[in-house]
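INFO worker-7 received task bundle
INFO bundle size: 2
INFO processing item 0
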Amino acid sequence: MSKQGKQKGRLGQQEIRDCLLETFPELEPDDVKSTIMGDTGADIQLSPKAQKIIPISIEVKRRKSGLKTVYGWMDQATNHSKGPPVVFYRSDRQPWLVVVNLEHYLSLLRGYKTDGVSFGSEKTKP
């Protein structure tokens, strides 16, 4: 990967890290870290505390134009109704993927509950 490509990837990781820290203010900067380019594993490292609040594996990709079709589909979904645009996509013999914009995803993540625990909260359901 070129130096410029690595810088673009690093900036993308930092943007996502910053969005997560803003969405989950109970986390400290050391809880959500952008990894060094070329490291194996998730692109955003989560501390054990952050993993309890945000139990996902994060891979960050930035491309100049490789996903133009997806953006076209999002525009189409935007024009169909007033709700947030959501694209459901599946290739042959592959599982379904769901595409939403970052703000909508973060609001879903913030409100999601699993096993009686809300993301962003360590309280259990009564």
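INFO item 0 finished
INFO processing item 1
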Amino acid sequence: MARNVPLLLIRIAAGMVFITEGVLKFLYPGELGAGRFARIGLPWPHLLAPVVGALEMAAGAAVLLNLYAGDAAVVLLCIILTALVTTKLPILLGHAVGPFGVPKSAEHHGVLGFVHEARTDLAMLFSLVAILLDSGVRPGRARGGQKR
């Protein structure tokens, strides 16, 4: 049991962050949902934001409850990698990447500006990778971390 505590804590943190962010896309659509997606330059923001919000809530709950956590981690990895490319990569490079510009709120560019602005995204990225790695079938373990 004690061996599973670190990953349990990672699942709780990642699950709660994604569930909360999904809910916020519905509660504050202009600021954090479709409006934000439109400002970033994502296509079909009024369709995409609710879909992403629902996926964040469902997959976040799956991670939190350790139900198909590996599959949920893959979905959330797609979301977090998209967020990093569309909002943080321009900060790292100091210029627009395709239609995705440097956010006006980013005061610093380069590696340090990127790490500062992307700290939560990076924490979620590495948490999801840990969940995904843990969910794989290993000798003596069934999928989902249960002993055979």
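INFO item 1 finished
INFO post-check item 1: The radius of gyration is 17 Å.
INFO post-check item 1: Residues 69-93 form the longest helix (25 residues).
INFO worker-7 idle
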